[in-house]
C-alpha cells in the first residue's frame, strides 16, 4: 500500500487513474473493530458497509477481506480515519491506526492499493454517529458498538468526499474564470 496526500488520492480516482467507476473505502480503526464504509460510484456519498473484527492474529485474514472488497466494489483506495491532535500532529490513539496500516502493508496483499489519512476528530461519535443511531434505540452493547464503528467510518469517508468534491469544484470554477 502506498500513502498519498488526500487530494492526490481523490484526483487519481476522479481522473480515472485506476479503473473506471473506482470507489473509496473509509476505515474507522478501533482496538477491537474496524468500521467500513464505501463511496457510491460517483464518489459523492458514503454508505455503511460492515465491521471487521480486529485481533493481533487475524491481520492476514483482514487483508484477504480487503482484497475481496477491492474486487467487489472496484476500490481505488482507502481513506483511513486518523486522530490528529489540535496542532495537526499525531495523537497517542493514532498508534493503533498506524500499527494496523503497517501490518496490512506487511502482508503484501494490498501492494497495488493507495491510502490516505483523514482527520477523524470532527467526526466525533457524539456529533455524527450518535445522532444517526439515536433513533434506532439499540440495546445490545455489541450491536451498538459495531454500528457505531460502521457509522464512524461513514462520517470519516463522507467528510473526506465532501471536502475533496468542494475543492474540485472550486478548482474547476477558478479554471473557468481564468478562461473567460
From TrEMBL:
Superkingdom: Eukaryota
Gene3D superfamilies (UniProt xref): YqgF/RNase H-like domain
GO molecular function terms noted in the UniProt entry: hydrolase activity; nuclease activity
Chain ranges of the YqgF/RNase H-like domain: 22-127
Keyword terms, alphabetized: Cytoplasm, Hydrolase, Nuclease, Ribosome biogenesis
GO terms for biological process, alphabetical: rRNA 5'-end processing
Name of the protein this chain belongs to: YqgF/RNase H-like domain-containing protein
Amino acid at each position: 500500500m502506498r500513502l498519498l496526500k488526500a487530494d492526490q488520492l481523490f484526483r487519481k480516482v476522479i481522473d480515472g487513474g485506476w479503473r473506471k467507476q473506482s470507489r473509496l473505502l473509509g476505515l474507522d480503526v478501533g482496538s477491537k473493530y474496524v468500521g467500513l464504509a464505501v463511496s457510491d460510484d460517483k464518489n459523492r456519498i458514503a454508505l455503511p458497509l460492515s465491521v471487521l473484527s480486529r485481533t493481533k492474529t487475524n491481520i492476514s485474514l483482514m487483508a484477504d477481506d480487503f482484497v475481496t472488497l477491492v474486487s467487489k466494489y472496484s476500490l481505488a483506495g482507502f481513506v483511513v480515519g486518523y486522530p490528529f491532535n489540535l496542532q495537526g500532529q499525531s495523537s497517542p490513539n493514532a498508534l493503533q491506526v498506524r500499527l494496523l496500516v503497517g501490518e496490512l502493508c506487511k502482508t503484501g496483499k494490498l501492494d497495488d492499493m493507495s491510502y490516505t489519512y483523514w482527520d477523524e476528530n470532527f467526526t466525533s461519535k457524539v456529533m455524527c454517529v450518535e445522532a444517526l443511531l439515536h433513533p434506532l434505540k439499540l440495546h445490545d452493547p455489541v450491536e451498538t458498538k459495531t454500528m457505531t464503528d460502521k457509522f464512524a467510518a461513514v462520517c470519516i469517508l463522507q467528510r473526506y468526499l465532501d471536502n475533496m468534491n468542494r475543492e474540485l469544484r472550486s478548482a474547476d470554477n477558478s479554471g473557468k474564470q481564468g478562461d473567460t
